[in-house]
Amino acid sequence: MKTEHKSKKNANNKEDSPPPVTIFHGSNSDDIEHAKSFWRSLTLHPPLESRLVSADIRQRLRIAPAPDKATGNKKTTKDAEAFESALFLHKAHEKLIQDERVRYRTLSQQRESVLDLLHKQREQRIQKEMISKDFK
User: Fold this and answer.
1) What are the distances in angstroms from CA 29 to CA 38, 74, 90?
2) Could you give the CA distance from residue 57 to residue 48 in angstroms, rounded to a whole number?
3) pLDDT digits (tens, 9 = 90+) for 35-54
4) How much is the pTM?
5) Measuring CA to CA, which residue among 1, 66, 10 is closest to residue 35?
6) What share of the chain has pLDDT > 90, as a percent?
7) Cα 99 to Cα 14, 49, 87, distances in angstroms
8) Cα 66 to the center of its chain, rounded Å
9) What is the pLDDT of residue 77?
10) 36-45 as b/e, with b when 16 or more CB fall inside 10 Å?
């Protein structure tokens, strides 16, 4: 088997030269026919990168978001921040209300104790007046 390069013009000009031709010298005709049919049936596929369409490679870029959606991401983060701040303010308000209830409860207990003391003192004063009424 022998490989020859044939060129029509200049031997140094590779752009115009045809692909190399394989010549079978010293082989019988059956082997030559089998080899020719084999080489005709064999086709090399180009690499994936050189194909225009391939199932293995994503051909399309992602679709750019619409202008409303592009600002929507910022809006959702602002909404999330607003929600978190509103939640924080709500919890702070609940804490203030709870503290106020505790303060009112202590004031109410103090008032009850003062009223009880006043009532006790009144009873004692009335008893003393009853005792002194006999001597007046």
Assistant:
1) 14, 77, 96
2) 8
3) 888 877 776 776 766 666 66
4) 0.37
5) 1
6) 33
7) 93, 71, 18
8) 19
9) 82
10) eeeeeeeeee
